[in-house]
Amino acid sequence: MHDLPTDWTALCALVFLLGMRHGFDADHLATIDGLTRLNRRRGAAFAGGCGALFSLGHGAVVLLIAALVGSASAQWVPPEWVDGFGSAVSIVFLLGLGVVNLRAVLAAAPGELVAPVGLKGRWLGRLAQARSPLGVAGVGALFALSFDTLSQSALFAATATQFGGVGRALVLGGLFVLGMLVTDGLNGWWIARLIARADQIAVVASRVMGAAVAGVSLLVAALGIARWTSPAFEAWTEGRELAFGTTVLAVIALGYGLALWLARRTRPMTHP
User: Fold this and answer.
1) GO molecular function: any one (predicted)?
2) CB neighbours of 124 closer than 8 A, spacing ≥ 6?
């Protein structure tokens, strides 16, 4: 979890960045990848928008939590253990996602596209194979019913009410959803483009993005462990939340930019 700024503007900026980073979670990427592939094979017109639809469903639950916690904050404050337990859950999931996605990149056969690997999607089984826009949004909503997402949303909302009630809680929830919508929507568009061209360019780009996602997952988990185990490091990071959030997004942006650059330079494989 995060020590949130006490300045409203800084808090809004941080929550938006956290929403963008949340959209790059490997679980989101893997599920959007599967939904996009499934619906593109069916010829569905909305296939390229699966990322945005998933994010809207996910965001609806976040906004609901923000409204409920914001309304009840005068009588209820999240207990202190929620922050610590939420941090532990996030670290465990990020470590697992980082390891399995890095392994997927390293183990991929030559010429094979690397698809993101998720954990939550496996629990949903056939529910994650939605074939309609409403169904895709429903999958996103189900993904929000996890302790890390629920506790993070509640913490944002409870913090926002210190600035003026449920309206501010909804503003923060909306900024988080907007950041997530940007990255999930971009991911759905990116996957649709990779599917459309199963050549060496797509292979290289998928490996670069897979490595970037794995690296960010491990980086964020490492920062969380360092803050948890080292009081000195935790004290040093106070007031630097925006800088850390920007750095994490910069790593992803560099990975995406590198993938595009390599895609332009790499020529499709030729066969004699």
Assistant:
1) nickel cation transmembrane transporter activity
2) 139, 142
